[in-house]
Amino acid sequence: MWISLCALGALALPTASVASKEADTDWHSGPEFPPSDFAPEVPPCREVVGRYQSSPVVASSPPREMPADMVSAFTAGGAIETAEFYVDDTINGQGSHYQYPAADVEHMITSAKEYIDGKRSTQRLPPMDQWIIEALRRHPLKGKSVIVFGSMSPWYEAIAVAAGADTVTTVEYNNLTYTHPRMFQTTPRNLLPPPTGFDVALSISSFDHDGLGRYGDPVHPNGDLFAMEATRCLLRPGGLLVLTVPVGPDVVAWNLHRRYGRVRLPLLLRGWNVVDTVGWSWRRFEAPADYRRSYEPVFVLQSPLQGLDRSVDASGSDVKDEF
Description:
about 325 residues; alpha/beta; 10 helices; about 20% strand; globular; disordered N terminus; disordered C terminus
C-alpha cells in the first residue's frame, strides 16, 4: 500500500479500540488519516540532494524557544501540541567529535552478531533494539551498501556490519571517527552517494530531531520531511529505509524531538511503501503518554521503483530556500 494523502483521507477515524491483538499490531488494518494542508510540494531529486549537501552546520546554540514566525508551520496551524524541553547538543555552538577506536567498534560488532545469530537473547536489549534486529533478520543486509543518518555511537553501524553489510556510511552534522574498514563517516556537505544509490538506509531516532536545531542542523518546520525526501533520493529504486521515530499523539517538544501522530505521521510516510513494521501497536499510537518516554516501533519502508525524478546534481545548483 503506497501511503498518499488521498488514500490516507479515504476512511473515517475509529471510535472504538482495536478488537484483537492481530489488528492492533497490523499496520494495514488500522485507521486511515485525514489529509493535511501542511504537506509541502516535493521538488526533484536534483534540488533535494543539492540542498541537503549544502546544509550548513549552525555555529551557535539553537534558539531556546520556537521561533514565533514558525509556530504555525511547526504545529500545522495549531493542530499539534507543543511542550518545552530544551537541549543543546551543539555544545554552545562548538560542535562535537565522537571517536571510537577499532577495539571498541569490534567489540560492538561481536556483540551485535551474537544477538543477530541468536547466541545471546535480545531480551537484554531495549525494545527498540530488539525490533531493529528482528527487522534486519527479515530484511537481510548481506552485501548491501548502507547509509546511516545521525549517530553518536557506532552501535547501529555495528549491527549493520554484523548483519553482513558491505559498506556503512554515516552522515552526521558533527564530526565522527569510527575506526573500521567497512565504516565511513561524512557530513551532508561532503556526502558522495553511489551512482546508483544506496541499497538500504537506517534512521534510528534521528529524523524526529531534524529542523529543531538541537544538533546544529538548520531550524525549519519541515526539516524532518525534507530528510525523508533526501533519503528517497539517495536510495536506489526499490531501496529500503529502516526508520524509527517516536509515535503517539502529536507533539513538538521544543527542541527535544517531535512525536508523530495522526497529523504528522502520514506526512512523514507519504510516498513510501510500508512493507513491514516491528513493534507496532495501534493502541500505543492512540494512547496518551509522556513524550519523554518514547515509544519507537520500526518501519521498513520501500522507495518507489519508478515515478521519482532521481537525477542528482552534486554541485547543489538550482537549490531553493524552502522545501
